[in-house]
Amino acid sequence: MKKNIKSLAIAMIAVAGIMCISNTVKAQDDMSADKMKNSSSKMKMKDDKMKMKMDMAEMKSWPMSSQMAAKEMMDKYGKPDEATPTMLVWNNNGVWKRTIVSKEESTHNFPKMHKDCMEQCINYRVSPEKFTELGKFDGSINVDRTQGTISARCDKEENNLLALNLAYDIITGTKTVEEARKAYGENIMNAMKGNKGEYMKKLMFSSNMSAPDPDVMTIGM
User: Which pLDDT band holds residue 210 (cuts at 50, 70, 90)?
Assistant: First the structure.
């Protein structure tokens, strides 16, 4: 009987030892996996930074406004989802459905001379009756009725936010075109003095995730 108890005790000690070794090995494996994961993450971040530096180097032939817009977006949202010799594209970055920074820039004199080179788009259905008013407000506001999107094209994200927030005020009847144009200029002047208003910090309304307007058929086929 004593012999059996002794044998059982030895067996239990052996099992405990095996379990202890197994747990130690597992812990070491987990630590190794974590280290590999962290190392991989750091390598990816390093690769992304290198890729962004390469992208910026390749953009030396771009106008300065486009380079600055691209750097702003890379610093905030990381490397673009798509890149060509003439544009960089981010999809679903922040509040935006799409951000496009273009090599091609357009001179825009409202409210002061600058270069439009970055278009940022959201889902939002705009009534066709408001198209003319939006065009009078800002020529760099674009509405795609079929896709159900509205976008602003400027040189900085904060200016695009301002333009779309004021466009929303026009759409909802909160401001007239003249009031919106005046507010735009005042906001830009205040920002130049270091006092950015709320309209330049965030989108003040909710975009509609499903806003297409397919129109109606006028001929039968």
Answer: confident
